Amino acid sequence: MKIEEITSLISGAVVEGSDTPQLEVDCAFASDLMSDVLTLRTDKQVMLITGLCNTQTIRTCEMSDIKVIMFARGKKVTEEMKELAEDDEMLLIETPLSLYKVAGILYGAGLPGVY
Amino acid sequence: MHFEYNVEGGDFTNAGTTSSVVKKMMKQLGVDMGIVKRTVVALYEAEVNIVAHAYRGVIYVDLEEDHVCIRLVDEGPGIPDIAKAMQKGYSTASPQVREMGFGAGMGLPNMQSNADKLNVTSEVGKGTTVEIINYF
Lengths: 115, 136
What we know:
The structure holds 2 protein chains of 2 kinds.
Chain A: H1 3-9, E1 13-16, E2 27-30, H2 34-37, E3 46-50, H3 55-63, E4 68-71, H4 79-87, E5 91-94, H5 99-108
Parallel strand pairs in A: 2-3, 3-4, 4-5
Antiparallel strand pairs in A: 1-5
Helix pairs in contact in A: 3-4
Chain B: E1 2-8, H1 17-28, H2 33-53, E2 56-63, E3 67-75, H3 82-85, H4 95-99, H5 107-114, E4 117-123, E5 127-135
Antiparallel strand pairs in B: 1-2, 2-3, 3-5, 4-5
Helix pairs in contact in B: 1-2, 2-5
């Protein structure tokens, strides 16, 4: 699913990496637990949907080869997080919707889960 | 190639910096991406453990032609029962660590599944040494 389609479905805004709107993701994973994210085993292009908004969210995704992160429930990405994300060419999205609602909408629109 | 990095306990802002550097280095050397990912996930879990549990530590990275050997040596409280710490779900992490998205008792088991060889030794009151070896 294209990032453009994702952001329009969940009233989201790309706040970092806006020069890659054509990027696509194959599936998504929703979690606030980074330990869980680090156990993912897939070669697919994954988007993480999370309410955990700190530098370790970015670091975890860097180690897990996850290039797209969506922060739910109005969480605001910090400048420090943006710098780390830019360094690894990641795309960060903010949405005012809850994690449950985001997951429901995107799953319903055809974006599958990792498992 | 041999590299050494210092890690400070409690410094969550910089947790993962070493793992990031090692990832870039392995990528530049053309190591298979699957092996890079397994290595840095195990290393990152171990690096976060130093930040979360120890006072300070040193990460020694030896990159050889056919394998990478990473030793994380920390000064800290140590692990009284390593077998228990290796069990999924067992954790002594602080609320601060949990707020960062860790401390679910999954770190050591995940290191094990991402390392070809994992050795953990510890002395209570002195510190813990974790050795991760992955072959290319």
